[in-house]
Amino acid sequence: MKGNLILIHGGGPTAVINASLYGAIREAQENPGVGRVYVAIGGTGGLMKEQLRDVTALPDDFLKGLLRSPASAIGTSRDAIEQEDYERMVPILQKYGVQYVLMNGGNGTMDTCGKLQRQCEGTDIRVIGIPKTIDNDLAVTDHAPGFGSAARYIAASTAEVCCDVSSLPIHIAVIEAMGRNAGWITAASSLAADSYGEGPDLIYLPERDFDEDAFLQDVQRLIDRKRCGVAVVSEGLHGKGGKPIVPPIFTVGRATYFGDVSAYLAQLIIKKLGYKARSEKPGLLGRASIAWQSGVDRQEAEMCGRAAVRAAVAGETAKMVALRRISDAPYRSETFLADIRDVMMTERTLPAAYINEAGNGVTEAFKTWCRPLLGEPLPPLMDLRKGE
Questions:
Q1: pLDDT attached to residue 180
Q2: Is 50 exposed, middle or buried (0-12, 13-18, 19+ CB in 10 A)?
């Protein structure tokens, strides 16, 4: 007997979360073991309100639009879920004949996956996680869908700022990148050098304690040497003891809304060094940009969605689809299944081997690891002052 399937989004969206949705819906439509295909409108809250849409019959020509659509096409949430909520979910899933639950999200969503699976023990309901996060902080997987596009965006945008600042060398630009405790996106700005030779001059990551005096010394050297520069900083920068350099505006559950780190540091340069500085904070643009969507990221996101359906129908449960890198050149990857217990609320940060000794940049090892995930090479930016 065929089992019905439901797809649920959780946490912040990405430029390719809908590509995973596309892959999962299409795989489910084509799989003889799946009956009806539902999506929850608005995440877990939508499930509990029974806000479900039947997408079983949606044609491929229509669904292909998901591949190039940002945000979550079915809505997402950061609902705080208590034990009684999990208890409510199971009867709803059974009411709709759901045997396969696919949850697409990051750390919090994988935690929800594991807890929902435990609540489903003794039933025929299977729960599989589909990885998603621009922060790239999921454990076990080589990287997470969503990161490649965010990395491509920050690298390309940083290259454009570097080009601008170099052409009118009168100030220091401080760019703030997303990433609470993991500096993967911030580090990816280093690949701006693939587009515009100079790249960012300084990169500061949350994996290292931030020292304001050392920062100002680094900036003064840039002013002395070339009268300008670009620094890329993580929104989660903190000093010794983990205290944020700019206190968070407020925190709700795992969602922390930080103050403007880039604005704070730009003002610090102005006040302490007496030099012009400006701040840039792309914010949501960094996770919503389809213009800079990575083709590799899109393909892997779809691949993960399809793999999740196959795993559930094959009888797997309490697993997350993960990515294994096979080679860098040419770049190749494959999916495998990770035990959800190895992923739940386990944050993966940038390893020490990817951070330079001074703590103000990244190593070539990081660039080699990250570069394939951006997809097509970034376009070169012209500068006639440098010759051919």
A1: 84
A2: exposed
In which band, very low, low, confident or very high, does the pLDDT at 255 lie, cut at 50, 70 and 90? low
Q: How many CB atoms lie within 10 A of CB 222?
A: 18
Regarding whether 317 and 278 lie in a shared domain, the answer is no
Q: Are residues 132 and 181 in the same domain?
A: no
Token pair for residue 124? Answer: 């025929």
**Residue 99 φ/ψ region, left for φ over 0, alpha for ψ in the -120 to 50 degree band, beta for the rest:** alpha
Strands 255-257 and 331-339: unpaired
Range of the structural domain that residue 250 is part of: 148-287+350-386
Residues 132 and 157 reside in one and the same domain: no
pLDDT at res. 256? 63
| b/e 297-311 (16+ beta carbons within 10 angstroms → b) | bbbbbbbbbbbbbbb
Which residues have a Cβ under 8 Å from the Cβ of 190 and sit 6 or more positions away?
Answer: 155, 199, 200, 203, 361, 362, 366, 367, 370
Domain of 376, CATH number, reads 3.40.50.460
CA distances from 184 to 162, 207, 285, 298, 361 (A): 20, 10, 17, 18, 12
Decide if pLDDT at 228 tops 70: yes
Picking from 101-105, 237-241, 247-251, 297-301, which range would have the lowest pLDDT averaged per residue?
247-251
Please give the Cα distance from 225 to 221 (Å, whole number): 6
Is residue 260 flagged as an active site residue? no
Do both 270 and 367 map to the same domain?
yes
Spatial distance between the Cα atoms of 132 and 96, rounded to a whole number of angstroms: 26
pLDDT tens track for 22-67 = 999 999 999 999 999 999 999 999 999 999 999 999 999 999 999 9
Residues 51 and 108 occupy one common structural domain = yes
* CB-side neighbour CA atoms (13 Å) of 210: 25
Note the pTM of the prediction, 2 decimals. 0.96
pLDDT of 252 reads 66
- Count of structural domains, the chain: 2
Residues 302, 229 within the same domain? no
Catalytic residue (choose from 135, 194, 218, 297): 135
